[in-house]
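[Structure tokenization] protein backbone as discrete codes

[Encoding] learned vocabulary of local backbone shapes

[Begin record] amino acids and matching fold tokens:

___
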Amino acid sequence: MRYHLLLIFLLFTVISFAQQELKGRIINNQTGQPLAYAKIQYQEKEALSKIDGSFSLTLTKDETELTFSYIGFETQNFTVSKDVEYIRVKLTPKIEGLTPITISSEKNKANSIIQKAIARKYQNDPEKRLSSYNFKNYNKFIIDNDASRLEMESDSTNFELSTVINSGASYFSEKVSRFYFSQKQGLKEEVLALKNTGFKEPVYEILSLSVNPFSLYHKDFRIFETDYAGPLQKSAFKNYDFKILDTTSTSRPAYVIYFKPKRQRAVAGLEGILYLDMQSFAIQQAKAQLLGAVKLEIDQEYQYFPKEKIWFPKSQETTIRPGNRGQSISVFGGMISSGTLQKKESILNSILAPGKTDPNLYLSITSTNFDIQLNSEEKLNTSAEIVVIPEANSRLKDFWQKNRTEALSNQNKITQKKAERLIKEKKIEEQINFKNSISSGYYPVGFWDFSLGKFFKFNNYEGIRLGFGGKTNKQVSNDFNINGYLVYGTKDEVFKYNLGTSIYLHKATETNFRFNYTRDIVETGSFNYLQGKNEFSIVEPRFVNINFFYEHRTLSSGFTHRFGSDFKTELQFSKSDIYQTKDYSFLLDGQEFSEYTLSEATFSFLWRPFATFLKTPNSTKLIEKGYPKFTGQITKGISGISGSDFDYTKFGLLVEHEIKRLNQSRTEIILEGNYATGEIPLTHLFHSLPNSPRRNGILRRFSVAGRRSFETMYYNEFFSDKQAMLHVKHQLRPINVHRLIQPELVFISRHAIGDISNPERHSIEFNSLKHGYHEFGIELQKILLGFGLGAAYRYGPYSLPSFDENFAFKFTFHLDI
């Protein structure tokens, strides 16, 4: 095999001698500024300069005549010999081209064309114009090192196979899909074939990348995890400047319109050109670039369908290379910057060898649509946006040869070999599995995944809570796990523990049977949703100051099941023996209960109708959160079963919504309602997530702010059997102090209202919320390493006599995982 590769390299070297690569830059002779998208004509071909004025041409003759032209500038012609490797072209402005153009002027021809293109979007955008369509797509994703290519093109006598195989970072994947679109369901993808070179198990994370936007007609579009303003949205003139560069002379002539961001600090935008059909003002072709910490290049081409009179996306290529300025592109949850990934855990942190700046690194994704069927009635009936069929990972060579829109080049094959070697030698697959465990709150050691949330905690009742917990992983079994924890409180000097199992009945629908026994403490008045909870948290701010718990010994069993992709449910049956840690008793029919037994049936659900999902043969993965999302729960306490003392019903509904804007500001709205009826003790009623210890002095109450807690409300101040809470947070655009220091100013408004029936049933005093509770807060988040500062003030009917009592000063902590 080694000698076969050497023959390939030798052949490529011979071919390369017949070619010349000419690089250069085109600038304004008077200002020295680069000329973006200047036209270059050579050897009956055309090319355009990039946004920094640079270009690279492959020439095949001993002497080549070049023509450089740019609107408003004098054209230049000259001849270069094969010995020339770099030229600097200076174009001189024409006298008539020196008059400045006012963008808002009606006389600006480019603006007039763009206005017509925006007005015709509904006729030209396939997702607006067509009722349905489907097409096949071939996608190729490469991460490689340009040094390998240079090495391969050099003198073969200095060539070392091992150097190429081991150099740099490599990744290679291919995918064949069929996309289906209808006005009712939107765009959905069925993955027919998937190949991740070097991996034993498929890397499904690759499928969740928003790399190639389907078209530039959208209001905004996503490349990796960064949103950019669309050049044909209604507010286009607010975000972009436009200029005519040229016209084409094809069978369907087009205007060549240059667009450039004008509010880059406030709204992310790309610089590029649109080829707009002179008749329909539809996009025929688009090129876009970004120069910053990375060099991003996008090339889109469209195909014309005469019968439907529409231009449809045909192909796209996206390339990323190292840059030199301050912008970044997010990939797999990580940031590509200066040729490598910044610190945010992701799959590519393993593949790209973080920490090593590699100026030769490049990432390339090519995507080609074929077998395009417009107004087709075929549909993909699924609630998931991406579905991987079971055969996708085992396609034979004939399938790939039939569905590739381009044959694999010699360089592709070399990259495949490099990827296989790299992934095996650096144990990339094991690293990915490890990081997936960490991100979900577990640290794998052999057959056991340790729970990171069980090692250390602190609260006023237990003191320091030390312990360990976790679950078995697939080294023990792919069909079940054994889970549990053991913790000890240094202040109450009591061990708490849990032991259970989960049996995986059907992985594709996440149908699991669970059985658990727990002996632990729970905060009085807390309401925990079985679904939608975040089981792993580095910091639990409220837990530190809680001092009112009850002890429980609970035996529970239940089922989880996912209906479709967006609706996950859990049904649980439990029996709990309750014991008090404080002097509290529940008074009912002349009898006091400080110890009692509760038998409950609970149904919980998480519904995410606006999220996007990836459905694989064995699981459903969340691609993009999407809002609003709904979490609900119904609990029925049944007296007389297994010695249960009380009969009651509890309801809870949590609605979370988030609005993200292109200027990086964000608004978060959380609405929650709780209701309980029947014979229900205080331990199982509701508080409103208070987060202020009852101490004199602002600094003595200093603590860490929570996400949806009331920062000025004292612990154990209010309890309710019916309540509603509203939290509104508005985060302004981050303040750009430094690349690593970008604090966020957040304004917060919180409100709660509630009441309680039969307060005389409870042996301790507390307030109701029937007059409404209000507080206002302000936070400066992420000042340094996720830490910030905040303050909140209580006002309204439940405000207290002094400023000190109404005011709360807080740490904030926000860490993205």
In short: Residues 1-17, 96-106, 150-168, 325-357 have pLDDT under 50 and may be disordered. The CA atoms of residues 304 and 311 lie 4 Å apart. The longest helix spans residues 2-17.
